[in-house]
Design a protein that fits this description.
By secondary structure, the chain is an alpha+beta fold. It has two domains: about 10-125, Aminotransferase class 4, branched-chain amino acid transferase, N-terminal domain (D-amino Acid Aminotransferase, Chain A, domain 1, 2-Layer Sandwich); about 130-290, D-amino Acid Aminotransferase, Chain A, domain 2, CATH 3.20.10.10. Helices cover about 30% and strands about 25% of the residues. It contains nine helices and 15 strands. A hairpin with a 2-residue loop joins strand 1 (about 10-15) and strand 2. The longest helix has 18 residues, at about 275-290. It is globular. Bound molecules: pyridoxal-5'-phosphate. The site of pyridoxal-5'-phosphate has 14 residues, from helix 7 and strand 13.
């Protein structure tokens, strides 16, 4: 656990101002707190640059519009807030979390009553997984809770994240790192905090939207795979496809490309990271390096 005095020294961006952590407080009637009526993004910064900041902000703003708020949100000011939080905390390699709620409303649910959105940015030193973890890969369980493929929340990174947390905590109690959601038809959707890919019969396959978060890392992986001339399919994936796959991996902005080597106690393929996974993981690292050493992204 971090020392309390170190925590007190962090600066948090709250509605346009950087304040010490202890002053980063929410009003009681904030709809993010009351109802989970808001969105968040978790991003990675490398070499002092937030990777794919623009895409994360686009996804968040689109999600806010879908939820019916955030007409006043500007990509430029959100980007400035994220970049300032990183710089003012003197961070180079970090996790950056942007949280946006609909704002302060009435005690009774009424979207019209909401003020302007609440915007908070927190940045912390990143603590990447060890090389040994990447060599071993993640294990997962199939979550005992199914997710509705037509859910209003399936495609957005909403603050209503409790279902994901429950599945994750349940997986951790079983001694594994991730839980995979199936939909009502028994088809694979995604991890509680990641997208899922399989390599089967020479093709890379991943579930298609709706019903999944269109991950920023997932998008990069699809593009990288195509550029490596790998056959790519966005399609329905049955549980049997996963268990008969030669390889599988998980993606998100923090873990990047993580081999998935065991599900429900059964090895996927040979139970260790396979050649396609290794190639895509290495290409992703090269991409990150080249993008984040070109200088900070600025939005017009
Ligand atoms: C449910 C879910 N799916 C997929 C992802 C991967 O998204 P990204 O690659 O944009 O980090 C996340 C990220 O946390 C997630 O929570």
């Amino acid at each position: 656990m971090s020392a309390p005095d170190a925590r007190a020294g962090w600066l948090v961006h709250v509605n346009g101002r950087l304040v010490p952590t202890g002053q980063a407080l929410l009003p009681a009637f904030d709809y993010g707190f009351l109802y989970g009526y808001g969105l968040f993004e978790t991003m990675r910064a490398y070499n002092g640059t937030i990777f794919r900041l623009e895409q994360h902000l686009e996804r968040l703003i689109k999600g806010a519009h879908l939820l019916g708020f955030g007409r006043s949100l500007s990509g430029k000011s959100l980007a400035d807030a994220c970049n300032e939080t990183l710089a003012e905390n003197s961070l180079k390699s970090a996790r950056v979390r942007l949280t946006v709620s609909a704002g302060i409303g009435d005690g009774m649910p009424d979207p019209e009553a909401c003020s302007s959105p609440t915007v908070m940015v927190v940045a912390r030193e990143s603590s990447p997984r060890t090389t040994a973890t990447y060599e071993r890969g993640f294990s997962a369980v199939i979550s005992r809770w199914r997710r509705c493929q037509d859910s209003a929340l399936g495609g957005i990174k909403s603050l209503s994240y409790v279902e994901n947390l429950l599945a994750k905590f349940d997986a951790q109690r079983q001694g594994v790192e991730e839980a995979l959601f199936l939909d009502g038809r028994g088809l694979l959707l995604e991890g509680s905090m990641s997208n899922v890919f399989i390599v089967r019969e020479g093709a890379l396959a991943t579930p298609r939207p709706p019903g999944i978060l269109p991950g920023i890392t997932r998008g990069d992986v699809l593009n990288l795979a195509r550029s490596l001339a790998t056959l790519v399919e966005e399609r329905d994936i049955a549980l049997q496809d996963l268990f008969s796959a030669q390889e599988a991996f998980l993606t998100n902005s923090v873990i990047e490309v993580m081999p998935l080597t065991k599900v429900d106690g059964k090895a996927i393929g040979e139970g260790r990271p396979g050649p396609v996974t290794r190639q895509i993981a290495a290409s992703y690292r090269t991409l990150v390096e080249s993008v984040t050493t070109q200088g900070r992204l600025t939005l017009g």
